[in-house]
Amino acid sequence: MEQKLLSNFGQICKNQTKISLKPFSIARTLLVNPSTSDQTISSILQNLETLSTAVAASNPQFYHLHVITLLCEISIVRRHFSPRITTTLHSLSLHCPNITPRAAGLALSTSVPYIPLPRPTWFPRFQRGPRDCFYLSASCIVVEDRGMIEGCYLRAVELLFDTEECVRCSAVHMVSEWGKFLVANSEGKSKRDWSDSLYVQLCSMVRDMSMNVKIEAFNALGKLGIASEYILMQTLSKKVLPITKEKTLHGQLSRKHSNLPASTAAGAFIHGLEDEFHEVRSCACYSMRMPAILSADFATGALGLLMDVLNDDSVVVRLQALETMHHMAVYGHLKVQEMHMHMFLGALIDMNSSIRFTARKVLRLTKLHDLILFKLVVDSLIQSLEKYPQDEIDVLSLVFDIGRNHGSFAISIIKEFFPEMDPSSSCNWDFNSSKTAAHLVLAISVPLSHGKQQQLDLDSIPSIIFSYAVTILGRISRSLTGVMNQDTLLAYLSHCSRSSGPHPIELMKGEDKMVEDDVATKIDSQITCPVSVRLDMVHNNNDGDFETHDNSDNYIKFILANIVQVWPLMKFGCIHEVLTTLRSWKEELATFITDPSCQSSSHLTFTSQYLDVVKLLSKVWWHVMCPMDLICKESGNLGYILQKLENKLRELQHRFIGLSKEEELHIQELTHVASTLKSSIFNESLIKKLEFFSLKEIIFQKNIKYMDAEVDVGDKYKYKYNDWLNPIPFVAGLPVGIPLKIRLHNVAIETKLWVKMTMYEKLREYVYVDLKQFEGCEKEWNVCLRRRLMVLEGMVGPHMSLFIFARKKRCSFLWFWLFVASEEFCWLEGFRLRQIL
Amino acid sequence: MAIDCLVLGAGQEVGKSCVVVSINGKRIMFDCGMHMGYTDHNRYPDFSLISKSGDFNNALSCIIITHFHLDHIGALPYFTEVCGYNGPIYMTYPTKALAPLMLEDYRKVMVGRGEEQQFTHENIIDCMKKVTAVDLKQNVQVDTDLQIRAYYAGHVLGAAMFYACVGDSAMVYTGDYNMTPDRHLGAAQIDRLQLDLLITESTYATTIRDSKYAREREFLKAVHKCVANGGKVLIPTFALGRAQELCILLDDYWERMNLKVPIYFSAGLTIQANLYYKVLINWTSQKVKDTYATRNAFDFKNVHQFDRTLLDAPGPCVLFATPGMISGGFSLEVFKHWAPSESNLITLPGYCVAGTVGHKLMSGKPTTVDLDKDTRIDVRCQIHQLSFSPHTDAKGIMDLVKFLSPKHVILVHGEKPKMDLLKSRIKSELGIECYDPANTETVSFPSTHFIKSDASNAFIRSSLTPNFKFPKDEITDTPSLHVRDERVSEGILTMGKGQKVKVIHQDELVTMVGGGKTEVEFGYCFGLNLCRLKNISKEVRVSNGDDSLLCVLNTKLSDEFGELGLRDCEGSLEVNSFRVRVCKNDDCPHRVDSDELSERLERVFFCCNWSILDKSIAWRVISVMKNMDL
User: How far, in whole angstroms, is CA A393 from its chain's centroid?
Assistant: First the structure.
């Protein structure tokens, strides 16, 4: 079919004598079909190119409009054709200088975000500008002239007032794109002014009558960076705030709308949220994310509106509102108040299961400030559970989570609730009810609550409750699969039911104590990483009964075995989950590291650093694959992360002795991946090479050793007062001795050791330390440095092992850098600052 | 040609909307309403102002009705049947369908009150026969010159704004409109048009309403709380409009929250009204239209017909009953039954006429309500007042005016002091002329009139390409790019005798006029001391002669004016259009000669010419040259 259409298209193109729209419709048919091959599109393009110069003579303007529109469509649907389309457009503009400005504007606005801006000839008269230069680079536009950006921006602003809907739509797009350039190219106060005026300008478009313009405006707003706080607050109120009243911003240069009053932004988001079209409403919800991250005040105001949106008739909009709230919660800007509760908790008993699920997701991250709120939440959860028993697993796990987060509130609820379920009382208590289950889960969550355990009045929880909980063990353990398995739960419950409370079952105290410790470690080791284990569930489909590990080795094995499964998740885009997993693993590992010198710790250090590498790698991966995502912009500069990753990898490679072939190979592979990712920033095609990359399972074959060194400046008291007022007397040319205490770990005696001393950046000296000379002094040497030592500048070769002893210019403290290297070419970085003078 | 706007009703007041606009010779009457507050002649607009003779058919081109509310249509049967207007009348389909119901209802009430009947049932039917129904955005050619078009206005079912244009002049009359959508009607929607005049309502000229979500939330919270506690909710409403909106809201909430409490509609009118909505689905909001394919939003899932036996049935329920202000009828009956119970809830509409039970409930918190001498009812139930309004607020009006940016704005349908405030806002913030005439006043202003002209090919070509300008910034002297899309750039309008008006490109002017190009040039001829110059020439070591003098000048001047591009042409030096040469002509017309004859021998004269553009450069060069003389 595809071939048939294509040949048809080609024939018409060749044979047509007068202009018809048929080839365009055929081309469009092919274009909209996602399964059309690139080859076909390519030949369409070729035909268009030949056409544009050949047949167009009779009615060029009419014809070119269609060609341009089609080209734009192709560039939107198939982004990788953009460069080629740009050239086509370019040649087109050369041949036919009379393309109408509107068409040019439209083409420009569609091209800007996707493809490099055409060469200057695209606007034939741009060349006249004495200082305007465009640089065409591989994936972005570099425009070097403020005047020109300003000109384009203001032109786009003028087009916002066009009578045609589609022109206004494109104009909004253009304003936002050029506006971003403008902001990026300004400094200081004018940067803020421009970003404000851009924001207000776009806000003014949300009151357009056309749905498409409104959607476009909100999308643009959602992508914008920052605006002044008062403008953000103004967007939440239809009434003009006092602060906004007199302010005006850069507007158009000409015509009657010469300046732009800040009050134009009034109520932009309110209008968006109460729009007639659900598309607009949902876009408005989405666009509130960015300002909600930036300003806590805005977030508070926006939350009030979003809570009301939960009453919307469209599921999509409600879901989007909840997602935005979740986003706010992630950034710690979600402050739920009692007045919100009616709407918010309504979402928990919504008909739609995804709404309920998202509402619970938000609730998990919500901090409840007082008991009333907490009670409301628990009651609603129970109500929701009664109505939708199918949600039980998630609801109970949520109850468990909020119980752990709000231990003291949970206790007071239990206290109230407990008398009701006492079997001795006359009331008819249903032990199978959802209510009981929820309350029991709440009760068992309390002893595991985060932090401040001492402050909780744990004794006030009757221990019999834990015995009751055993009766519905199956139900509870199903909900808590992510946290602990059934056996652990049973052990925990039976322990709790014996240990505390008014019921004296404390028989053998000593034994009991032991049990308690045991359980505590067992539980701790598994609970601290709920997310990670849950992720494993998704992939393994096992019932979560991985073995309990009470020593670090097993834990390391577990991590190294499971880290392989993290990568596919990464590829699916669950960056947050992956990072949380890695973080919690790392925290867990950190608890085992006590003394780096002992043997088992080398494995720990390795694993910990390996986790770091994977974490950084995930971040970089995410950056490169999804550069538009908002989150990653937040998570720091790509260059910085890459640098960090490279350092970590180098350390991993060189500071461990005794790595097996496979391990070394894997680290090499990681290094390669990192550098490929780095170069793929400039050349996107490289990404394809990484398609099949995944992490490998590492099993330690041999004992690895971790090289480390510490430098200690000997006479503490002498240098104690070495601050900027009383620097160490360090006169150039005079022999001054600074005694150093150096401690080396796992460094072979054959290793060559150098101490580097730097002063004022330029003055650098190296001292060779012959380890053999100190042999026998066990693992500590006292090295006395004299400044007469040989100067080896420029001769620092790969075979040298160095201590770097750098002295910073301002001399308030000393830096100790440690470079240890083995026989091969290695660089090791890392320092341990024992003492800051 | 001019636009005259005669306000017959709703000028600085609310009620009997009626505006007659003469636009390029056509007269259109917008709305023909009645005032509910009067029973005398003030009830109707003063139609005699339209035509003293009473020949309305020739005086008016057409009548346009925006929606079916009585203050917009109430006087129509009177005007057509009693006053005898027979010309065309336009309104939208739903208005045509619902208007006779409203009018008939009103006539019955009047008859019931024993007032004099203004028009009969037959009058209404005959009147409606003259009506032409129009659809949204349908171009209607009233006659050869006058074209009208309806735009969606929200407000009530079938409400429309009307666009009218005659020749080059165009205007919009909004009627009542709503800029924020509600559950069953959309927001007003109009294209961006080139307008001379916008006549807009201004009911809420100063109010700025907050989000409608807050109002909905309060309402739902109150109702939900009541039924959750087993109470009964009475919602007295008007048959059409609010009842449907609230019902959609509740039905939706019920479904979402999975509530099983029954919602009842009292018999008759409301159910019938729902029927109209179902038929006229195209005039409702986007959401209703969207879901129409799967389910008609007016087929309420949880709504049942009410049965009188249910009045005292136990258990919670929600009941919609008419009339809205509990002035009598079924809602009063239910009120009697339900008001004494604390668990029940009664919602009141935003506005209740004084004297009705609704009004009594609104003012203060009465514990008892006297229905008549013998009946007193204890009121223990909760009261919730609704604040929904189908009119746009001040911000909506401003937004619409800004969006349309007409040349003039006339405010009607509002209260004088508030309209004044809005008027001054429109003038100051938007820079648009604004008026708020009282009844029977006329506002006039000129209308737009375009003149057709030909354009030369060269001009069209120059206009087709984008026009980028690089005007110099006087202060910083850096060219800033000025991107403009002025396709009518820099043309010259020519009007020859007996010829059509034509726009030509500036380059064509000379050939067209047949004249030559004349440039004004300034001249200045002055003498310098030859000795001094020779001294200087020794310093720079050049040979004698006239050329040598110029060389001297060149070296001197290029220090100062090098960056401007000093050129040494044959026998003269040039900077832009400035030109200096040695002048041998003793009778040079530009010679400025005040010196004595004796010194003349030692002097050499330089003659300078320049055009006005380089005035400042010229005088700088001259002053430098004169300084050399010192």
Answer: 28
pLDDT, greater one: B469 or B204: B204
Nearest to A306 by CA among A362, A350, A240: A362
Residues B223-280 have pLDDT tens digits of 999 999 999 999 888 767 778 888 888 888 888 888 889 888 876 656 677 778 778 8
Return the number of other C-beta atoms located less than 10 Å from residue B465's C-beta. Answer: 18
Confidence check on the interface: ipTM exceeds 0.85, yes or no:
no
How high is the mean pLDDT in each 10-residue block of chain A (837 residues)?
78 68 79 79 80 58 69 72 70 58 49 36 29 28 59 78 84 85 80 86 90 93 84 89 76 52 88 91 91 88 90 89 90 84 87 90 87 90 90 89 84 82 63 82 79 59 81 84 78 74 35 37 37 35 38 78 79 76 81 56 81 86 63 57 85 79 85 82 70 76 72 50 51 50 66 61 60 52 37 29 32 31 30 30
CA dist., res. B57 & res. B530, Å (int): 95
Interface of B with A in 245-274 (CB under 8 A): 248, 252-253, 255-258
Q: What is the pLDDT of residues B282-304, one digit of tens each?
A: 888 877 887 777 777 777 888 88
The answer to whether the CB of A372 falls within 8 A of the CB of B247 is no
Q: What are phi and psi of B495, to 5 degrees?
A: -125, 100
From the list A88, A84, A77, A24, the residue with the least C-alpha distance to A52 is: A88
Write out residues 279-318 of B within 8 Å (CB-CB) of A: 285-287
CB atoms within 10 A of CB B573: 22
Task: Fill in the DSSP letter of residue B294.
Answer: T
Number of residues that make up chain A: 837
Q: Is residue A823 classed exposed, middle or buried when 0-12, 13-18 and 19+ CB atoms within 10 A define those classes?
A: exposed
Residue B193 contacts A where some CB pair is shorter than 8 Å: yes
Q: Which residue of B has its CA nearest to A253?
A: B482
A302, A337 contact by CB (below 8 A)? no
Of residues A283, A262, A265, A263, the one with CA closest to residue A273: A283
Contacts of residue B40, Cβ cutoff 8 Å, sequence gap at least 6: none
User: Which residues fall within 8 angstroms of residue A698, CB to CB, at 6 or more apart?
Assistant: A560, A610, A662, A663, A666
H-type helices in B465-571, by residue range? 509-513, 530-540, 546-561
Within A681-764, residue ranges assigned H as helices are: 716-719
Reply yes or no on whether B201 is catalytic: yes
Other CB atoms within 10 A of residue A315 CB: 16
Cβ <8 Å between A276 and B478: no
Residue pair B75/B45 in contact by the 8 Å Cβ criterion: yes
Question: Residue A642 contacts by C-beta under 8 Å, 6 or more apart in sequence?
Answer: A620, A674, A677, A678
Q: Which of B13, B116, B122, B201 is catalytic?
A: B201
Q: What angle do CA B221, B224, B229 make, to 5 degrees?
A: 125
Which H or E run includes B321?
A: strand B317-321
| pLDDT score, position A768 | 65
The shortest CB-CB distance from A311 to any of B190, B217, B478 is to: B217
Q: In this structure, what token pair is assigned to residue B480?
A: 């800033």
Contact A238 B190 (CB under 8 A): no
Nearest to B489 by CA among B473, B505, B510, B472: B505
Amino acid at B189: Q
Q: Which of A150, A168, A270 to mutate to test the interface with B (most CBs of B within 10 A)?
A: A270
CA distance A646 to B385: 67
Residue B189 touches partner A, C-beta closer than 8 Å: yes
CB < 8 Å from A in window 446-505 of B: 461, 464-468, 470, 478-485, 487
Amino acid at B291: T
pTM for this entry: 0.65
Query: CB B485 to CB A277 under 8 A?
Result: no
Nearest to B468 among A126, A158, A342 (CB): A126
